[in-house]
């Protein structure tokens, strides 16, 4: 497919996991990319994989902390300076944070998770929307979580931040639809990414693979999702084919969010 021919997409968290998977799919469909992350080596690895699969596409790399507004403003401006526009934005960077009961959750840890997962999404939207409103078109996909539409337990900071992402998505979709911009969020469940693997190791230590089996037991499909499955969804949602999907949150969780 060539849905992304002559299009430019920014992806935060592009060094691994969902960001890397979405970038690879969009590049295969002809899209130019601006990949943003703090992990320089991971960014270089993503670029290497992308160019191996789609050698004709352009890939810009930006080291930036999404929790710092000035750095967000800079990566948005770099995309505009390089390509002259922003067609799509996968506002994806995030962390899971500490596993603990709410009463034991430290305020510094809480603020850290919220600053990356929620402030980072807000800053990204703030500056991308300025450009998209000026253009009269654009599409944003924010990464929420199944933890943003239901409780997950022992993850106060993560759940609060991802519920916030859902609220920002719905509110901004209502605001900016009139300007030709569609905004939606994905709500992944158990997707086997480095972040999820790290979380399982936090829970299960050396027995993290057993913890993983318990983790997916609440999932009707009884398996982990694959990053590329999320990449396919993001590539669709950012494309012109999904322009009328706005202020919506789309679960990709094997049915977990609907199981009681």
TrEMBL record:
InterPro entries: NAD(P)-bd_dom_sf, SDR_fam. SUPFAM superfamilies: NAD(P)-binding Rossmann-fold domains. Keywords: Oxidoreductase. Belongs to the short-chain dehydrogenases/reductases (SDR) family. PANTHER family: DEHYDROGENASES, SHORT CHAIN, ESTRADIOL 17-BETA-DEHYDROGENASE 8-RELATED. This is SDR family oxidoreductase.
């Amino acid at each position: 497919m060539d849905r992304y021919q002559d299009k430019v997409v920014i992806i935060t968290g592009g060094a691994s996991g969902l960001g890397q998977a979405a970038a690879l799919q969009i590049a295969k469909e002809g899209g130019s990319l601006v990949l943003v992350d703090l992990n320089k080596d991971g960014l270089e690895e993503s670029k290497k994989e992308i160019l191996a699969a789609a050698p004709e596409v352009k890939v810009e790399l930006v080291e930036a902390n999404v929790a710092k507004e000035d750095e967000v403003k800079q990566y948005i401006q770099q995309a505009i300076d390089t390509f002259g526009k922003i067609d799509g934005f996968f506002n994806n960077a995030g962390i899971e944070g500490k596993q603990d009961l709410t009463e034991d959750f430290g305020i510094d840890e809480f603020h850290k998770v919220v600053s990356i997962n929620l402030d980072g999404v807000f800053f990204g939207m703030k500056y991308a929307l300025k450009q998209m409103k000026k253009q009269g078109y654009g599409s944003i996909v924010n990464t929420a979580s199944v933890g943003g539409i239901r409780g997950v337990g022992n993850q106060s900071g993560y759940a609060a931040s991802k519920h916030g992402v859902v609220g920002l998505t719905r509110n901004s979709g209502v605001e900016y639809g009139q300007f030709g911009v569609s905004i939606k969020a994905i709500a992944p469940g158990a997707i086997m990414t480095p972040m999820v693997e790290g979380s399982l190791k936090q829970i299960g230590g050396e027995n993290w693979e057993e913890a993983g089996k318990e983790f997916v037991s609440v999932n009707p499909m009884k398996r982990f999702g694959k990053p590329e499955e999320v990449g396919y969804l993001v590539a669709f949602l950012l494309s012109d084919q999904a322009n009328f999907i706005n202020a919506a949150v789309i679960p990709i969780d094997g049915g977990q969010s609907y199981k009681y």
